[in-house]
Amino acid sequence: MEKILVSACLLGAPVRYHGGDAACTHAILRRWTYEGRVIAVCPEQEGGLPTPRPPAEIIPAAVQRSSDAGGGAVIAGSARVRTITGDDVTAQFCRGADRALELVEQHRIRMALLKEGSPSCASTAVFDGSFSGVRIAGVGVTTALLEAHGVRVFNETQIENAQEWLDQLEMPQR
Predict the structure, then answer these.
(1) 27 CB contacts (<8 Å, ≥6 apart)?
(2) Residue 67 has what pLDDT?
């Protein structure tokens, strides 16, 4: 049975920066949990950040192509993650991503369901680094690392697509 890495906040754990959760009650996620597929992770806590914590965003380098936005640029060293108060938390975000990758390797995980909008977990859009609520195309630090290692990442609005991918993964080989 395939295991699925899932953001702990989507499972109702109060681990988000503001101390709350982002509980997802989708029937598919409930079924995966019941089936014992789910491996929960909060990369930000795994990286050593407290809850609650100041909001953080990926701060792009001064001169950067839009294709370099997000977590991939952080991993490459061309962007940083900073809190709204200016603290550099890049090391904690990278450490959390590394811990998520360890779980992936330990459980032979090939897919993940992670929280959209998070500087760790986003899979389609991240905030632009201005703390003004503007989103740009990009992925979070953990998502970038996982995708670089072949993990397919979905967000909470893509659960049906994730189930289709899971069905393909578990299809008997002919």
Answers:
(1) none
(2) 47
pLDDT tens figures, 90-131:
999 999 999 999 999 999 999 999 999 999 999 999 999 999
- Rounded Cα distance between 161 and 167, Å, is 10
User: String of b and e for 54-92 (b: at least 16 CB within 10 Å)?
Assistant: bebbbbbeeeeeeeebbbbbbbeeebbbbbeeeeebbeb
In the chain, domain spans: 4-169
Residue type at 10 in one-letter notation:
L
pTM greater than the 0.85 cutoff: yes
Contact 119, 97 (CB under 8 A): no
Rounded CA separation 39/10 (Å): 12
Residues 6 or more apart whose Cβ sits within 8 Å of residue 65: none
Tokens of 104: 């992936």
Tokens of 158: 């893509």
Give the C-alpha separation, 172 to 169, whole Å: 8
pLDDT (0 to 100) of residue 61: 76
- What separation, in Å, do the N-terminal and C-terminal C-alpha atoms of the chain show? 18
